Amino acid sequence: MHQPVKFYQTGTFTVGNRLLAPEQRSVQASTERSNSLNSGHRACQGCGEALGARYAVDAAMRATGNQLIAANATGCLEVFSTPYPETSWQLPWIHSLFGNAAAVGTGIAAALKVKAIKAGAEHSPVRVIAQGGDGGTTDIGFGCLSGMFERNDDVLYLCYDNEAYMNTGVQRSSATPPAARTATTMAVGAHPGAEFGQGKNLPLIAMAHEIPYVATATVADLRDLEAKVEKAMSIHGARYLHILVPCPLGWGAASHDTIRLARLARETGIFPVFEAEHGEVTAVTKIRRHVPVEEYLRPQKRFAHLFSGNGHPETIARIQADADRNIRRFKLLDEAQQEA
Amino acid sequence: MLKQIEGSQAVAQTVALSRPEVICAYPISPQTHIVEGLGELVKSGALAPCEFINVESEFAAMSVAIGSSAAGARTYTATASQGLLFMAEAVYNASGLGLPIVMTVANRAIGAPINIWNDHSDSMSQRDCGWIQLFAAHNQEAADLHIQAFKLAEELSMPVMVCMDGFILTHAVERVDIPAQNEVDAFLPPYEPRQVLDVNEPVSIGAMVGPEAFMEVRYLAHAKQLMALDRIPQIAAEFAERFGRTTGGLVRGYRCQDADTIVVALGSVIGTLKDTVDELRGPADDGPRIGVLGIHSFRPFPLAAVRAALEQAKRVVVLEKSFSVGLGGVVSTDVRLALSGLGLQGYTVIAGLGGRAITKASLARMLREAVADRLPPLTFLDLDERIVKRQLEREAATRRSGPIAENLLRDLGTVASKVS
């Protein structure tokens, strides 16, 4: 049943840099890691969600000494990992529905708490994560998620945001960015792609619940992702981690560009990477090399209409303005960079 | 201990005696008193250790119950009406995952028009969801059924709904024998889950099942319901042996032995029917030979038991508080299946929708017609046909007729139709 960990020579960022001192190494650098989502699953090549989930869950497993249970929303992650009677999960895992992963997590945490009290402990040694894509989190699962936050249930919710409903054929979600083409926001009409001014910023909404910990991360910064999971697992109560996971299929990008696109989303300011505690921002990842949004948009077919024919320079300018607003709001640039 | 107690409180107390570990609920009339009672017991520490979770919706209530039950805790929730419909997706999921959750349904009508009073439309809408559905005829049965439900659910690893008439039972104060904790403990052992989220033996629950196995997995749900068909009467008998009273089971007949007319019913109306039958038969038992068959297990539907109880009758009247719009009675369809080939005269009587009182006088009138074989095959008891007729005429004549309140009130004679 247990699948030994395999290592692939894919570069120091992904294997976790085994040249470092052992205590500085990534969870993924260790052959002792849980390998919670093992190989053989059916995700697409270059899937950001599979990568993000493996890093996040393995880090949570290390943080808890493998005392972890996962609740999973319906979506790509569930479908590609559990074709009955097979499963890629090495930890106790449950999938119930599309919109209830947070509530199922709440139920598991409640059951564990009662068991712990019966055993004479204050907290259960076993911890709970709930996970889903942006559709299952920002849209259909939003009510259950808000309820879980509001009660401060002891669950870490992991949102793997690939910015649309990829499992059903790339339809718009409330996390789809403006101007992006999806199957329900086609690149036609006067303002092709998704509307400006719509959608939800779930990390900010999570912060408004004043839960102990909210953070964002991308699959371009896997050590940062691991560190945030580790920090989240050191806290009791409701925690939320929003991870940008590019989808080669849905974004119309090359499989080998997943990491590059995630990095560009951060370096343009389109996706601010930060941490917040009890409703206040406590840390941000500064932009190292500030790039214009065009560099991020151009490799993706979902934005191809912005560059074809006469192009849509005014739309690109609006996206740039949104990115600049993020940079101001979260102070993503050093003062020296801002002046430059 | 005998108590003069509200039905909801009797249920809350017996659920508490069953030692649930997680209770989650969203308030909806007429379920509220049950979860209020349990909330107080948990908050005061009387039920420790138990987690009471106030959720944001019924969908969340069933979802929390799914997580809690899958993690090995004895889990309870309660709902009614729109709430049951709102949780429907998770209701199906709980049975598909084989989770032994117990849920009270305080039966209530479904809107529109919105109506908070009792009928069986809510739980009947979940007829095919894979849960066992037990119906209580009175509050003693409602209380007792919960203890039996936990045992049944956990033995078979499938969820059980205990259906009790909203307001008529939930808010009625009557005498109920609440058992002692040690008696319940002896009857109901601690929950030992068959399939549990355990870090020492990890399993994946709720995998994606393709066409090559889905039929078989779904068939297993049916096979388990058939097992329940055996286990429900056995548990009722074990309960009767320990507690000295018969509640639950599949069906229970009243004066059926010599009856040529048998009324089939579910829930609290069984009591009214028994009284009506007694009065019609008269003190000298020289009236029409009518009996009552109460169905206590609606799912699994006890085809053989119903057939055995009815086969010597001449006619069967199914009295039910729900209907399948565009067809007729929901329960009648099942009863007809049980009677197929017997050639009995069958009647469906829809009664008490949205809390319309089912009076003994109306029942007696209807039964006399049935005995004389003058009853239409589908009857809506006490339906005011004038209102329906006028409304249909309006709809034929005007474009925007709709069930406008003003029109209905005028037809009912509630407001004056002429202006001085």
UniProtKB/TrEMBL annotation, chain A:
Q: Which CDD domains match?
A: TPP_PFOR_porB_like
Domain of life of the native organism:
Bacteria
Query: Which Pfam families does its entry note?
Result: TPP_enzyme_C
Q: Which UniProt keywords apply?
A: Oxidoreductase, Pyruvate
Domain Thiamine pyrophosphate enzyme TPP-binding, residue spans: 74-242
Q: Which InterPro entries match?
A: PorB-like, THDP-binding, TPP_enzyme_TPP-bd
Coiled-coil-forming residues are: none
Q: Does the keyword Oxidoreductase apply?
A: yes
Q: Which PANTHER family match?
A: PYRUVATE SYNTHASE SUBUNIT PORB (PTHR42897:SF2)
Q: What's this protein's name?
A: Pyruvate synthase subunit beta
What is this organism's lineage?
A: Bacteria, Pseudomonadati, Pseudomonadota, Betaproteobacteria, Burkholderiales
From TrEMBL, chain B:
Pyruvate flavodoxin/ferredoxin oxidoreductase pyrimidine binding domain mapped to chain residues: 19-225
* InterPro entries, per the entry: PFOR_II, Pyruvate:ferred/Flavod_OxRd, Pyrv_Fd/Flavodoxin_OxRdtase_N, THDP-binding, Transketo_C/PFOR_II
Q: Supply the alphabetized keyword list.
A: Oxidoreductase
Q: Which residues form the signal peptide?
A: none
Which Gene3D superfamilies does its entry note? 3.40.50.920, 3.40.50.970
Output the Pfam families linked to this UniProt entry: PFOR_II, POR_N
List the coiled-coil residues: none
Protein name in the entry? 2-ketoisovalerate ferredoxin oxidoreductase subunit alpha
